[in-house]
Amino acid sequence: MDAALKRLMKKIPPPPTPPASEVDWGRLESAIGLQYPVSFKEFITIYGICVWFDNLSPFCMEAKSDVEVKTFLGFVKKRLKWLEDNTYDEQFHKIEVPPLYPEQGGLFPFLMDDDGHLFCWRTEQKDSNKWPVLCWLQGPLIAMGEITIAKMILDFLDRKPHMFRIWGDINLYEPERVGITDTSQLKTEKKAKKKKNK
Q1: Whole-angstrom distance, CA of residue 152 vs CA of residue 76
Q2: Beta partners for 143?
């Protein structure tokens, strides 16, 4: 198991019943033509497709049917279109858009936040466990190197500079936002609003 994931489990215990954690990886990987990194699969198995810090969530799905997979691939291509003609270096100089999925070695998204930031693997290498991460901040494209999703979250919690500049200062978050968001409460609030509007 990913060492960062072990540490994260101690710091933020996984939910008793992780949401959307039973992914049919065989169906999903066969459809997209790529193998997910082992660390990402472990993360999803343990935490599911949770909302973190009331802001970000793994970009994945359970792939319970071919129709669901087709819908997911549509979302992937739609999100990657955001990068077209809107990619810069960290000094906001226009740069060429790197190859995007389904191009050979193209960027493939695995995490996104409510600000529209997209976190992608550069899928050039055959070994998916060595894919580097690039973060698209609605324009600037930041290379993050080889880093797992669990390590990204841990480094954010530890206020490491490379995550500080992307997600800000964890110390400024309200205590209830630090960790996994209770989406069941959000669903209850949405239902209450719908009833009220009827």
Answers
A1: 21
A2: 134
Decide if 154 contacts 11 (C-beta within 8 A). yes
> Strand order of the sheet with strand 133-136?
56-58, 107-113, 118-122, 133-136, 141-145
Q: Are the CB atoms for 76 and 101 separated by under 8 Å? A: yes
- Which of 118, 151, 119, 136 lies closest to 11 in space, CA to CA? 151
Alpha carbon distance 121, 40 (integer Å)? 11
Residue 57 pairs in a beta bridge with 112
CB-based contact 69:63 (threshold 8 Å): yes
- What's the chain's average pLDDT? 89
Q: What is the pTM of this model?
A: 0.88
Q: What is the C-alpha separation between 108 and 123, in angstroms, rounded? A: 7
Q: What is the pLDDT of residues 57-69, one digit of tens each?
A: 999 999 999 999 9
Nearest in space to 147 (alpha carbons), one of 124, 122, 181, 118? 122
Alpha-helical (H) ranges within the chain are: 3-11, 25-32, 38-47, 66-80, 149-157, 161-167, 183-197
**Where is 120: in which H helix or E strand?**
strand 118-122
Tokens describing residue 177: 């936002």
DSSP 3-state of 175: helix
Residues 6+ apart with CB under 8 A from 189: none
Q: Copy the structure tokens of residue 44.
A: 């999803």
Contact of 143 with 131, CB cutoff 8 Å? no
Task: Give the tokens for residue 121.
Answer: 């693997």
